[in-house]
Amino acid sequence: MEQVKNDEHVACQHASLSIINPYELLRKYRCEECQAVLTCSCDEDLALYVLPHQAMRSIDAQTRLPVQVTEPLLAGVCHECRGEEPPAFPTKPHRGAASLVHRYYWREIYKETSHRFIQWVSKQGLPLTGSDGQGVVMELSRQHRTEYEAIERAVVRDMRGQHDKKPKYDFSRQSDSDVLAACEVATEDYPACYVTPTIGHVQVIPIDSGDLESAVGVEEFVSQRLRQAGRKVMLCESRPFQALYATLMWLWVQDPRDSRNRSAGFGRRDGAGQGDLIWTMLPEDFGSPVHATRRADALEEHLGSLPCTMEEMLWVFDYWTPYAEELRQYLWAYSPTDVERGRRLIQILGPEQVKRVLRFLADDYWGRYLGWPDLVSWSETGLGAADVEFIEVKSSSDKLSEDQRYWILKNSEILKLPFKVAKVHRVQRIIRP
Length: 433
Ligand SMILES: [Zn+2]
Ligand SMILES: [Zn+2]
Hints:
The protein is of the alpha+beta class. It is 39% helix and 19% strand. It has helices at residues 44-50, 100-104, 106-123, 137-143, 145-165, 176-182, 218-228, 239-253, 289-294, 296-305, 310-320, 325-330, 336-363, 365-368, 402-415; strands at residues 17-19, 29-31, 37-40, 57-59, 66-68, 71-74, 186-196, 204-205, 232-235, 261-267, 277-283, 375-381, 384-395, 419-431. A hairpin with a 6-residue loop joins strand 4 (57-59) and strand 5 (66-68). Helix 1 (44-50) packs across helix 3 (106-123), helix 3 crosses helix 5 and helix 11 (310-320) crosses helix 13. One zinc ion binds at residues 12, 14, 31, 33-34, 36.
């Protein structure tokens, strides 16, 4: 019988490429068909003169494993060279790069600045490579900082101009109310009297009270109203969930049977024992979605082994608290208050909901550990907590952060915890004497 073989002489056209790590300056692409790892010829300047140590090597964003480039500087690899629209990978706003142009065009700015700086270096008659043949433009940019920064400012100006004429990325952002409406989040209004001028955080007092002594922040204001209505309230945000996760999941995360667990050192988060490193076992891909899929069976097994009754889950939490100390430090949930509130969440949510929260976090920890609501509120009944609600408190001018938007979206898609927004409105103003 004759078998039809793939013609191995025909080279792969590398038609379907994916970006290995979108946040690397020198981008690598993997061909889905032949698994080749490519860089684009338009990045030649970066590869040869600026980032030679990154030219042949990438770190996979998901698996955190090193990846070797097999076909460097091929023509027509990147989206731009293929005439396609590149996907946007905006960075988070940070000091010195808060504008949308900086956040969306960070790679383009770097690439174009490097390109123009190389031209300037050549014009000065300076060598682009050292005696070992390695590119030295990075060092030169530090030595000629003023020049480099002037070029960069010009590039940013040009990018801004180009964006105004023909935007490459879409900056338009849904409004907060669109996000809330899309996720069917109810908003509750809390009229209040604002104390002005605002010093630091917004402070409010009840309407017509005139009592400046009672001025509190908006979270506390809403908490007081809820307590007056006979409800229980706990300050929440993300830390209690981080403590809950570390304490109930350390056995899965730090499982010695996981071949990708290795010893990792990090600085103490709580500042005690200055300079001391904490050494613990952590999987190399901790917190990425790959971590959860790679260890899906063990995750299933672990969640299945957690108790189904409140009493037993609380017992396990207490029993594991000392063992989870290192992981809690690593996840910044080290304070006794974090642990206490994490424990409280078990009583408020009950074991089934807690397990759903743990799975939600395990599936993409770094993507989901932030943005949790300010407050959790419930009614205390003879049978425990009932009518639980998570509440994000906003004052009139407050906007949702990116993390909060993402949490609201994921909660409505996956987690489905009861959630609403408490909006503290300014209907009166009182001037601080
Ligand atoms: Zn290919
Ligand atoms: Zn290209």
